[in-house]
């Protein structure tokens, strides 16, 4: 007599190398086989488990993942009670193949089969490529019965996996048996209409005929035939009802796949943008000194990993959760509270930590190297940054402008702004805005500016005007233009009447500095960036630079922000090509990967050439920007030496000094 109540067939499928054999051996033998070779064809092991005091025998089939064995392993799907689809959480391609495996299951397995999705090798924490959330989403979309992550190495959830399979199958089988037994009971108590009654009547007729003294061959044969038919009816009815009961128990899942369709396209995957770029590393290796290249390359590799694992998700969140403006509190007081999501704030902290702006001004590195380093880092960051690169561009431009005016150490507000704007400490770092556009707009800045500055003492002014398009209003300081009002109340028209001002947006208590946020702009494509119409109603500011030289002074900021704009454009081109290239290896068209079709590869090649050309121009701009700082310092050095030499000449009669 058999020593178990139920026997269930469990089949493990998935790519080669995902750890199916190790899972089976860990469960059945309690060992982890190091250096386990690939399974050839199929293999199986048996283990008995207990489910509520019932012995359940699991026949576990381990199938090969290689393509050449598919025709063999497919035949094992048909009689399986449960199919476990396994992928490696540290191997993205094994996850990307899941739709193909799922298609085989739906083609060859019973519709009522128990389907389990398993992400194996969770012990490889630092090497994980497939987040748990992605696996869970895939299992829910494709109607798996449940999802689990395991590790055969440290036995994480291995026993739980197979015990859960045994429990679910046992409960389903018991439920089916109960329905069948109930049917038999109902049939046996029916009044004259059931198959049991028919058998009893046929049996009585047969016995009567057999005992009769006048029996003949014909009557005996008819009675025997009736008895046989009655048994057949009962068997047929029993078989039909039993199958009907089983189908009824799974009617909700019989066609559930039709709700989402039988196909799920694998999404493109973002890889480390530095390692994945075919050109960036080569350009840096050529342009940078060897000792500096190694330092920069190591930083960019590390940062590229952070972009994939952390920054990209934050950027997406910032794009979805757009800022909002709460102008009044519950008591009707004007507060102009700008509300941005946590991810936007975290991205600004990341910018400080990573030196997205600060790298360009770190004196321990020469200007040439640090500008190339900064632009390369921005290039990796920009497509995932949720547009936080906009305030970073203006922050960079503000530092450049203040340094160009030689205000560091000479003006208290400017000095504090320079130090905080380039700081790597998120607790003290500032960002800057740039307020130029007014209602007239356009490139005629001098003709369009209608903001006025009233002198209040020393170098301080009160600004009055309406700024029509003010980006990154959650910044700490801003540079803006205004017309200085003379003591007699007159102003100078045109660009020569404009001066540049530096102002704090909020005071130390967090109150707006004579500023009202009128409304946020409803933009088309950059809604995650808080841009507003501002009313300057006596905002306290300091004039920096010579009066009437505002346009010339603020052009330093414009030049820097144009380079940042170029970075964003070219980085977006590179990111699109990277995703399109990856997607073409996952998308199957007319029986083969899209990457193998000449028209597609030709289109990508044209895009690649154009992108590389734009990238080379961008890096040349960064190189020249760094050289300009180096040359400016060199010219300043020669100017000082020239003055020193002129002081010496009157006391020197040697004609060689003239040279």
TrEMBL record:
<dbReference type="GO" id="GO:0005764">
    <property type="term" value="C:lysosome"/>
</dbReference>
<dbReference type="GO" id="GO:0032482">
    <property type="term" value="P:Rab protein signal transduction"/>
</dbReference>
<keyword id="KW-0333">Golgi apparatus</keyword>
<dbReference type="Pfam" id="PF02770">
    <property type="entry name" value="Acyl-CoA_dh_M"/>
</dbReference>
<keyword id="KW-0968">Cytoplasmic vesicle</keyword>
<dbReference type="InterPro" id="IPR041820">
    <property type="entry name" value="Rab30"/>
</dbReference>
<dbReference type="InterPro" id="IPR027417">
    <property type="entry name" value="P-loop_NTPase"/>
</dbReference>
<dbReference type="InterPro" id="IPR009100">
    <property type="entry name" value="AcylCoA_DH/oxidase_NM_dom_sf"/>
</dbReference>
<keyword id="KW-0460">Magnesium</keyword>
<dbReference type="InterPro" id="IPR006091">
    <property type="entry name" value="Acyl-CoA_Oxase/DH_mid-dom"/>
</dbReference>
<dbReference type="InterPro" id="IPR036250">
    <property type="entry name" value="AcylCo_DH-like_C"/>
</dbReference>
<keyword id="KW-0636">Prenylation</keyword>
<feature type="domain" description="Adaptive response protein AidB N-terminal">
    <location>
        <begin position="272"/>
        <end position="424"/>
    </location>
</feature>
<feature type="domain" description="Acyl-CoA dehydrogenase/oxidase C-terminal">
    <location>
        <begin position="548"/>
        <end position="624"/>
    </location>
</feature>
<protein>
    <recommendedName>
        <fullName>Ras-related protein Rab-30</fullName>
        <ecNumber>3.6.5.2</ecNumber>
    </recommendedName>
</protein>
<dbReference type="InterPro" id="IPR009075">
    <property type="entry name" value="AcylCo_DH/oxidase_C"/>
</dbReference>
<comment type="similarity">
    <text>Belongs to the acyl-CoA dehydrogenase family.</text>
</comment>
<dbReference type="InterPro" id="IPR005225">
    <property type="entry name" value="Small_GTP-bd"/>
</dbReference>
<comment type="similarity">
    <text>Belongs to the small GTPase superfamily. Rab family.</text>
</comment>
<dbReference type="GO" id="GO:0005525">
    <property type="term" value="F:GTP binding"/>
</dbReference>
<keyword id="KW-0458">Lysosome</keyword>
<keyword id="KW-0274">FAD</keyword>
<dbReference type="InterPro" id="IPR001806">
    <property type="entry name" value="Small_GTPase"/>
</dbReference>
<dbReference type="InterPro" id="IPR041504">
    <property type="entry name" value="AidB_N"/>
</dbReference>
<dbReference type="Pfam" id="PF18158">
    <property type="entry name" value="AidB_N"/>
</dbReference>
<keyword id="KW-0560">Oxidoreductase</keyword>
<dbReference type="GO" id="GO:0031410">
    <property type="term" value="C:cytoplasmic vesicle"/>
</dbReference>
<dbReference type="GO" id="GO:0046872">
    <property type="term" value="F:metal ion binding"/>
</dbReference>
<keyword id="KW-0963">Cytoplasm</keyword>
<dbReference type="Pfam" id="PF00071">
    <property type="entry name" value="Ras"/>
</dbReference>
<keyword id="KW-0488">Methylation</keyword>
<dbReference type="InterPro" id="IPR052904">
    <property type="entry name" value="Acyl-CoA_dehydrogenase-like"/>
</dbReference>
<keyword id="KW-0285">Flavoprotein</keyword>
<keyword id="KW-0479">Metal-binding</keyword>
<dbReference type="GO" id="GO:0005794">
    <property type="term" value="C:Golgi apparatus"/>
</dbReference>
<dbReference type="GO" id="GO:0000421">
    <property type="term" value="C:autophagosome membrane"/>
</dbReference>
<keyword id="KW-0342">GTP-binding</keyword>
<feature type="domain" description="Acyl-CoA oxidase/dehydrogenase middle">
    <location>
        <begin position="434"/>
        <end position="537"/>
    </location>
</feature>
<dbReference type="GO" id="GO:0003925">
    <property type="term" value="F:G protein activity"/>
</dbReference>
<keyword id="KW-0449">Lipoprotein</keyword>
<dbReference type="Pfam" id="PF00441">
    <property type="entry name" value="Acyl-CoA_dh_1"/>
</dbReference>
<keyword id="KW-0378">Hydrolase</keyword>
